[in-house]
Amino acid sequence: MKKAFILAAGLGTRLKPYTLERPKPLFPIGGRLLLDITIRKLIREEFGPLLLNTHHLADQIKTFIRRQPYAAQIQIFHETRILGTGGALKNAAQQLQGQAPFIVINADILTDIDCKAAYTFHCTHPHPVTMVLHDCPQFNTVYVDDRQQVTGFQRSGGHTTATSTGNRRRLAFTGIHVIDPMVLDKMPAEAFVDIIDVYETLIASGHPIQAYIARNHYWNDVGTPRRYRQAVLDHLLPQAFQTAGGAPPSPAPQKTQLKGDGSDRKWYRVATTEQSLILVDHGIRTGSSPQQVDAFIDIGNHLYRQGAPLPRIRAHDRFAGLVLLQDLGQRHLQDVIRAQPVDDKREVIYQHVIDQLIKLSIDGHQGFDPAWTYQSKAYDQHLILDKECRYFIEAFVQTYMGLEESFDKFRAEFEYLAEGAVRNAINGFMHRDLQSRNIMWWEDKPYFIDFQGGRTGPIQYDLASLLIDPYVQLTPALQSRLLTYAVTQYHRRQAVNQEVFFKGYRYCAICRNLQMLGAFGYLSRVKNKPVFETYIPPAVRNLSANMNAWFRTDFPLLCHLADTLSARLAQPMTTRKKL
Predict the structure, then answer these.
(1) What confidence tier does 161 reach under pLDDT thresholds 50, 70, 90?
(2) Measured between alpha carbons, how far is 414 from 406 in angstroms, rounded to an integer?
(3) In CATH, what number is assigned to the domain containing residue 511?
(4) FRET label pair with 467: which of 103, 168, 253, 299, CA 20 to 30 Å apart?
């Protein structure tokens, strides 16, 4: 029998806060839990029975093990307090004693190192321990001499315990070692025991530790968020590139961070010399409720199936928060429009976008499941009041402009605004952030990105987002022509009351304008992204102009506030005063 001991008791300190609710050995890699990957690897390599220790969130590990039909006996040793590697082995000494050596492996490593080969190698020499080492500069702390024997260790603080000053090099410990049972006698019972302390004692007393040097293998310590995400990405990339181009990536792809948007997500281009993908990092999951990455995946897959123009999702991992997408290049609609200052040419481009928006709204709504949404299932009055009107007052008027205005002062007008937007809605699939930076221009076609905020809602809202977009600042005359074009084209797909469509558009345009200014204020002041300040003056001017053109009588307080904001922004910062 070749017994194996899996070390699974750690607190996962380096992975907090993600390990507060899930123990590190139960983190998924490519849809399989890390502990399951390790157990099945050991069983394939003919190890058994298997032993493992637990401590942090031990019940989760115990429940998982009991539910698996493993082809090997597994015995769990629970530690009421952390004992360290040596203490854990001593705690299981009765089961590990005997003539045969046993192998020990950390539960937080992902590797294809051949453990059976390391065990067989150990049986060819007389030394009590074989440490499986490799060259990994970040972790090279084990000294090895010309005879491939361990001579000491570089400990924390740079302290070195090497016993030889001859030819030697440093290698990294893989977390895999093969141990003779006699080593257990060197450990005190019921105490914390650092296995490296034990190994230093063995070396000092004339019991050499042999090195088994692994080469041409995969290994990753997934004990930190960065390294965990990298392990997941290492699994996803071959699958994603093969789906995209028919072959795994070769040579190894290079990852380059891209300029981000207003969210906290991180964007990367992952490319080889022949093909590339876009990587979106939403962050590792916390909690069990639906999160943004879930909406991104579910809504994105649905819209793609419906034929909507958006990047295809090539691979993803919900827990790690990683999604790999089709790369649509670097040109946004904003870039295309800025290169076409003539309204006639802009109009043709926007007509093409509107055609695709109508398709997105109507076809995307067919079979759409509200359970896919993140934060709210539909665009309703509560969302308008809280996420747009209140957001505008608190994040923009109060925080950014420094004005002492309250939400309650405008409550009645906000409620009337929200009611009008919902009552006149022509509902379908709603993107909710359809502006020129969220539309890629690839092969002379528009493609929608950032669709994770989608839900059921009025097409007028997305149309307003597109036309009043301060990133491009279309002229009022062009906006009017495009609005008429949109109504006409929509009516060809689905009968619509034009008066209701226009009325709903006006209400939605004001709601979107409020949300936009709230976001600009928040991103500028709270998230310290001053680039968004550039677009505040045109957004305020647009709000003031539309309020006065459409709602002077209905919303006198909001009209006055919009005019005041516009006047304040026209003044130098030093001369702005409170109302």
Answers:
(1) low
(2) 12
(3) 3.90.1200.10
(4) 299
Q: How far apart (Å, rounded) are the C-alpha atoms in residues 267 and 259?
A: 7
340 with 382, same domain: the answer is: yes
pLDDT digits (tens, 9 = 90+) for 436-448: 999 999 999 999 9
Contact (CB, 8 A) for 493 and 358: yes
Phi, psi (deg, nearest 5) at residue 314:
-95, -35
CB 519 within 8 A of CB 395: yes
R_g of the chain computed on alpha carbons: 31
> 3-state class of 399 per DSSP?
helix
Cis peptide before 25 (omega within 30 of 0): no
Distance CA 522, CA 516 (A): 10
The tokens for 458 are 């009025």
Question: 538 and 471, same structural domain?
Answer: yes
Per-residue pLDDT tens digits for 316-342: 999 999 999 999 999 999 999 999 888
| The pLDDT value given to residue 576 | 47
The phi and psi torsions of 13 (rounded to 5 degrees) equal -60, -40
pLDDT value of position 157: 59
Residue 515's identity, in one-letter code, is: Q
User: Would the pLDDT of 245 be above 90?
Assistant: no
In the prediction, which pLDDT does 160 show? 65
Which has the closest alpha carbon to 84: 55, 42, 119, 47?
A: 55
> 341: domain range?
333-575
**Confidence at 504, pLDDT banded by 50, 70, 90:** very high
Q: Is the dihedral of CA 517, 521, 524, 526 positive or negative?
A: negative
Does the pLDDT value for residue 159 go beyond 80?
no
> Taking the CA of residue 67 as centre, how many other CA atoms within 13 Å lie in the half-sphere pointing to its CB?
7
Q: What is the pLDDT at residue 578?
A: 42
Alpha-carbon distance of 35 to 68, in angstroms, equals 11
Q: How far apart are CA 252 and CA 356, in angstroms?
A: 36
First to last CA, the chain: 83
Q: How far apart are CA 368 and CA 384, in angstroms?
A: 21
Cis before 251? omega within 30: yes
| pLDDT (0 to 100) of residue 579 | 38
Do residue 283 and residue 211 come from a single domain?
Answer: no
Token reading at 266: 């991180």
C-alpha to C-alpha distances, 249 to 245, 271, 464, nearest whole angstrom: 9, 9, 42
Measuring CA to CA, which residue among 320, 316, 346, 318 is closest to residue 333? Answer: 346
- Are 298 and 430 within one domain? no
Total structural domains within the chain: 3
Within this chain, do residues 107 and 192 fall inside the same structural domain, yes or no? yes
Give tens-digit pLDDT for 21-54.
999 999 999 889 999 999 999 999 999 999 999 9
Among 302, 326, 350, give the residue marking a domain's end. 326
> Exposure pattern of 343-374 as b/e (b: 16+ CB <10 Å)?
eeebbebbeebbbbbbbbbbbbbeebeeebbb
What sign has the CA pseudo-torsion 451, 452, 458, 462? negative
Residue finishing a domain among 220, 238, 258:
220
